[in-house]
Structure formats: structure tokens, C-alpha cells
Amino acid sequence: MSYNLLKGKKGIIFGALDEKSIAWKTAIRCHEEGAEILLTNAPVAMRMGEINKLAAIINAPIIPCDVSSNDDVLNLIVKAKEHFGGGVDFILHSIGMSLNVRKGKHYTEIDYGFNAKTLDISATSLHRVLATAMKHDAINQWGSVVALTYIAAQRVFPDYNEMADAKSLLESISRSFGYHYGVKKQVRINTVSQSPTRTTAGSGVKGFDGFISYAEKMSPLGNASADDCANYVVTLFSNMTKFVTMQNLFHDGGFSFTGVTADVIEQMGK
After folding, report:
1. Residue 14 counted as domain residue
2. What are 43-59's pLDDT values in tens digits?
3. Could you list the residue range(s) of the whole structural domain that residue 261 is in?
């Protein structure tokens, strides 16, 4: 059901890989709520994924962008303004990549070159996008930026590896830039900490199936789906949340504030 929450708004969606991805589902929901969308992803991700299919569904242009490249980010922002005839009203940052995880390196033995790349793509890219957007006045007044994160930024999940550090940095950038962009142009910036979700990227984390089952038992409402996350992000892009900024917002069925549940105790007793 559509409520026209984003009627007349324009936005950029980073990271839609395939139908499992939160970015993909968010793009669909934004379109259903009346927004015009521009899609972007890294060239390698575009070759691996199905972004052209999504673009056809929501009638959105695609501009490739390697978020570790200043030139690529600048090209994206300039072309987005040209396409929309002005600034955008919202941006979704749904980007994460860990070479150490891909290579199976334990957290205590990470390759620091890989680590630098992880931090650049998964976190510093948000700073790069926001700094470029601010310089070129590319986000409209009272605009909204959301970056997807995970509770591993606050708690230890051993197999989440260096991505936990990246998410911590991502959340810090969101707060710091949230202050500066808020003062300058009332742009709000938040992170959403989602339940473990069966995306293509999430499923690659070691022990994911066991953990998603544990999280389901630890969450009073159960794990939040990717579709529900998309709905939540839409509200953060809408005018209904104009004064929410610099927050890390948990969208996880209550997992983040639950010490233990009867289901977990029962399971441990077996």
C-alpha cells in the first residue's frame, strides 16, 4: 500500500545488487511512495548483480560509481543534479565490502592493506559522498541521508571481523557530518542497525545461518525482514521524521535491548 510519503522527492540509492538486497527493496518502496530514483553501484557489483532489472522496474537511470574514487563520486553528484534539475531529497548508503572476510583472514591476523580498503569503501565513502554533496549543494534543505549499519559496531560478533570496525566508523561519520550538515542546511543523517538479513552479502558471513536463528530467538518481535527495513527507511526519508538526526536507530525486533529470552534459555538447556 502506498501513502505518497515521498511524492515529489528525488533520491540516490547506493548498493542495490539483487532482489535480496535492502537497497533494492528500498528503491522499490521509494518508487511506490512517489519518489524519483537514481541508482548507483560499483562497476564490479553491477556486473555481478541485476541492477539493470531494477532500473527497468522503477524507470531509474544508473550511474556507475566506485565510492573509493573522488572523481567517480564527483561525477555521480554532478550527473545526479543534471538529471534531476537540482538537488536530491534523500540518499541511501548501503555499501559494505571486506577483503579480509573474503580471503578468510581471522580478525587477529588481518591484512592491513585489505583493512584500509574495507574502511574506505564501507565507511569513509559516506564522508566522501556527503562532502562532495555539500560542496556542490546537492542535497536539498531538510533532506535525509540513511546509512545501513549493524550492532557489531557496539557488541562483539567474532566472525563479523573487520566489518565491525568499519560500521563503528560509519556511525561516527554519520554523527559528525549530521551536525555539520544539520547546521548548514537542516539535512539529517542517521544510521539504521538492521536485524541479520539474508542478503547476498550477509549470507557470506561465517556461521550466518546459526546466528540468524539465534537472533530470531533473542528478538521479542523476531528478526526484521529486508522489506520491513525498506519501509522504515522510507519513513526516515519522509517529512514525518524531520527532526531525527545523528542517531543510530535499531531496527531489529528488540534484539539490541534484550538480555536473554525464554526461548534461548530453553535451547541452552537441551
Report:
1. yes
2. 887 877 799 999 999 99
3. 10-268
